[in-house]
Amino acid sequence: MKNFLKLSSILLASSMTLLSCNDDFLERQPLDEVGAGSYFTKPMDLEIYMNQYYNASFFPKYPNHGGDYNSDNMVASTPDVRLQGTRTVATTGTIGFGNVRSLNYFLTEYKKLEGNHDFNTYKQYVGEAYYFKAVTYFNLLKSYGDIPWVDQVYGTTSPELYSPRTPRNIVADRILGCLDTAAMYLNADRTNGYSRINKWIALLMQSRVALYEGTWQKYHNGTPFGVQNADPNKYFEIAVKASEAVMNSGLYSVYNTGKPESDYFDLFTRRDYTSNTEVLFWRRYDNDLSRGDTDFTNDRNFRMSQPLGRSMTKEAVDQYLMTDGKPITGNSLFGGYNTITQEFQNRDARLKQTIATPAQVWKIAANGTTQNWSVVYNTLNTKTDLNAPTGYIIQKGYDPHVIYHVQQYEETPSILFRYAEVLLNYIEAKAELGSATQADIDKTIKPLRDRVGMPNIVIGSIASDAKWEFPTLTPLLNEIRRERRIELIGEGFRWDDIARWAAADEVIVGKRPHGFLASQITTNPFPVDQNGFLDPFQKAIPNGYGFKLGRDYLNSIPESEIVLNDKLTQNPGW
Questions:
Q1: How many CB atoms lie within 10 A of CB 469?
Q2: CB within 8 A of 31, min separation 6: which ones?
């Protein structure tokens, strides 16, 4: 993995009481097992072994046009199959324990160094193994729910391979335990942010996992996906402690140069994040080292110069507040929908920095000559590459400098973890605990809004919104969820948020994504609703998304896996 990362970090032992990551269970011999007799004899062996996990599976590049197409934030040319509710039970395939096998192998074999080498010379790599095991299991947990916890290396005929599913709360506890251990061993330095992971990334991940599990247990309670003896507050407290540890480290802060009209946009178009205090970890591309690597392909700016069938939804756009900090509903500052320019007037500055308007810069040539997005809007939806089903062209993550538009071999870096998520995890967990104070808001939401010149949330003075997405929740929770949606839009968080909040009935089922008024563009191949707004999936899903509430929050277990192990049970609704 020549082109990627080499990281470093360490943490004080966590005071959180969790089940240990280790628990005797089941495991197969790793497919990539090396000759143990001649390997794992020196720290460098451990480093080389762990390098294989610094790959696109664990650290994917920022997707072209963003990555919320499985949610209500963005649409591609066809509706997402999960949201449609049209998936069927997988007949073949595996659940994907390959990384678990190879990591368990490492966690057994590294102990050969004990007594022969100072633990401090290789604890970084042990910490990495626990981190990657935690992330592997977190992805399995989100996909399948209850999943067998595998902690030992067994032979291919071991009866332990055919064990039943482990309850999801136990799996979650062990994931959090792995992250405790990872944080204890990983380097505590900030480092360059692209080489090797550090303690603070493990803690960010711990806050993410804990918040996910806490809200899952709270909002899925009483449903087929509920957890027996649910204890969501335990996880909210862990999320608070983990995120607070990162906040108190003093190493990270929100990127803000005092330019509210551009700082948010500029954060995602920088060429180097080594000294950027908001970015905990990023993916660096270097043609001198990387060309020829199978996961190098990188062409974000080249692709984003045209919409290519991808666009933001009106439902997401309507969530952006006005500059007075109040919603658009009934707000005299709102200019209406006649043109995208009017619609975006007096709005949260993140809106124009996420979605292009005709007057903004589209391309900057090497000689400094500029073209505006009006060139694209004037020809929108006239051919496939120019199709934007909702009309809203995505520009978050796009650099208009043509010198950086390269087909396949762009050196455009990708942000993988940023401090904004830490702040949002903290304040949401505090609000779920019912203990959020104005001081908590001031150190989390306020820095994000300060960056774009928006007024802060003031507890007790939150403007009511007749179109709150979650009317049964408190005004504070509604606004924290709104802030999370706006700040992290396009970064791949939205589906996970909908899933853990059990919110598909409120924002997905029976709904269709819409766009701006079709009258704004000359050519329109897409259907229009009764009010004149683009309604691209009107024919494909006339009754709206058919997401099945009792089934589609989790994936099906492949039938082939159940045949191999009859102690596995199918997920609800499948």
A1: 17
A2: 98, 101, 102
CA–CA dist 453, 430 (Å, integer): 24
Q: Cα–Cα distance between 112 and 279 in angstroms, integer?
A: 36
- Helix, strand, or coil (residue 521): coil
Nearest to 188 by CA among 251, 238, 131: 251
Q: What is the pTM of this model?
A: 0.93
Q: What share of the chain is helix, strand, coil (3-state, %, to 5)?
A: 35, 5, 55
Q: How far apart are CA 163 and CA 150, in angstroms?
A: 10
Q: Which two tokens stand for residue 107?
A: 């966690």
Residue identified by tokens 């482990």 is: 166
Give pLDDT, residue 10.
Answer: 26
Q: According to the 3-state scheme, what is the secondary structure of 21-49?
A: CCCCCCCCCCCCCCCCCCCCCCHHHHHHH
Phi, psi of 509 (to 5 degrees): -60, 125
Element (H, E) at 205: helix 199-219
Give 383-406 pLDDT, tens digit per residue: 999 999 999 999 999 999 999 999
Give per-residue pLDDT as tens, 315-370.
999 999 999 999 999 999 999 999 999 999 999 999 999 999 999 999 999 999 99
Strand partners, 417: 281
**Do the Cβ atoms of 516 and 493 come closer than 8 Å?**
no
The CB-based long-range contact list for 528-535 (8 Å cut-off, 24+ gap) reads: 533/314, 533/337, 534/314, 534/389, 534/390, 534/391
How many other CB atoms sit within 10 Å of the CB of residue 510? Answer: 11
> In the structure, what pLDDT confidence band is assigned to residue 570 with cuts at 50, 70 and 90?
very high
Q: How far apart are CA 449 and CA 563, in angstroms?
A: 53
User: Parallel, antiparallel, or unpaired for β 311-312 and 74-75?
Assistant: antiparallel
Contact between residue 555 and residue 95 where contact means Cβ atoms under 8 Å apart: no
Compute the mean pLDDT over every residue in the chain, rounded to the nearest whole number.
92
Q: What angle do CA 64, 67, 72 make, to 5 degrees?
A: 135
The answer to whether residues 301 and 410 touch, using CB atoms and an 8 Å cutoff, is yes
pLDDT at 154: 80
Chain-centroid distance, C-alpha 221: 24
Query: How many Cβ atoms sit within 10 Å of the Cβ of residue 347?
Result: 19
3-state secondary structure of 355: strand
Q: Say whether 430 sits in a helix, a strand or coil.
A: helix
Burial (0-12, 13-18, 19+ Cβ within 10 Å), 367: exposed
pLDDT grade for 160, boundaries at 50, 70 and 90: confident
Torsion of CA 231, 237, 243, 249, to 10 degrees: -150
Q: What angle is formed at CA 37 by the lines to CA 36 and CA 38, rounded to 5 degrees?
A: 95
d(CA 253, CA 553): 34
d(C-alpha 439, C-alpha 461), whole Å:
15
Are 278 and 413 a contacting pair, CB within 8 Å?
A: no
Cβ-contact 193, 279 below 8 angstroms = yes
Q: Rounded to the nearest 5 degrees, what angle is found at the Cα of 22, between the Cα atoms of 111 and 186?
A: 65
Q: Which amino acid is at 9?
A: S
